[in-house]
Amino acid sequence: MPASWSEKEIAGTDWFSSFLKRHSKLSLRTPEATSIASATAFNKTNVSEFFTKLAEVMDRHMFDACSIWNVDETGVVTVVKLKNGVAVTGVKQIGSLTSSGREQLVTLCVAVSASGNTVPRFLVYPRVNLRDHFPTGAPTDSEGTAPLSGWMTKDNFLLFLKNCVQHVKSTKDRPVLILLDNHYSHLSLDALEYAKENGIVMLSFPPHCSHRLQPLDLSVFGPLKRKLSVSQSKWLRNHPGKPVSIYDIAGILCEPWKETLTMSNICSGFQKVGIVPFNRNIFTDEDFMPADVADRPLEAGSVNADSHTVAVPV
Q1: What digits encode the pLDDT tens for the residues 284-308?
Q2: Would residue 131 count as lying in a domain?
Q3: Could you tell me which residues are beta bridge partners of residue 197?
Q4: Would you say 248 and 135 are in contact if contact means Cβ atoms under 8 Å apart?
Q5: Separation between Cα atoms, residue 250 and residue 252, nearest integer Å
Q6: pTM for the whole thing?
Q7: Does a structural domain hold residue 294?
Q8: Which of 92, 101, 136, 292 is most buried as measured by Cβ atoms within 10 A of its Cβ?
Q9: By C-alpha distance, which of 71, 52, 69 is closest to 276?
């Protein structure tokens, strides 16, 4: 072992490069940031309970792949996320054109079925009122709304549900299942009542588990964001001197939408999480290992033999 390894307490870059060449199955990856809440919530108990409820609902209504939908939102910003580039060694500052210094957010709400179908895109603009010119360049069947915040709200989600019913044709005799997260806008009384009256069965993922259980997060939103970044760069090049505005987002989304919301991508997401085809054992013990950080030993005297309860410190 070279003496420099002992002095610096680290191996050299040449050794690391050779190590990766010797082990072709290994690669240098950037880890995805995961909060403590998400890491601890994704455990065997929560996931098992979700699949139990999913099985009960599917057996009760006999849902097929065409009747199982996943709904979620993602943010689309007007400022392009810059990527790494090749430059001359020693150059300290490298410039790249972006839309503007201050980004604006448009929320995109997406619904996909386990058979690979989608409903028209639904955009939420940060404006007081929706105007006809907002979805410039978007397909004619695109829908939208305009709360001041630009985020999904209870009223806007109700509008989205009504839009979904028009396309999926759900009724009490032909119900559909919608899987979604526990965002407050999804669980309003008005939305739940409308869903019940129009044949929509809603099942939510366990809190902080959508990053591993939601098909859209696993196979659609990632590729969509990467393609969207490329599409925004093309738009800036074809419109020199003009910044991207929220009114251009709908048109910029067209190409990424066609390339990423494909049947193969969508079906792959449902398969990866074990929803369609149903597989409650899709996750292994290794998948639940991050949740072990929540395990804490019981304090002495915390077990009450009379009441059979366990007091766990919070």
Answers
A1: 988 988 877 655 554 554 444 343 3
A2: yes
A3: none
A4: no
A5: 6
A6: 0.80
A7: no
A8: 136
A9: 69
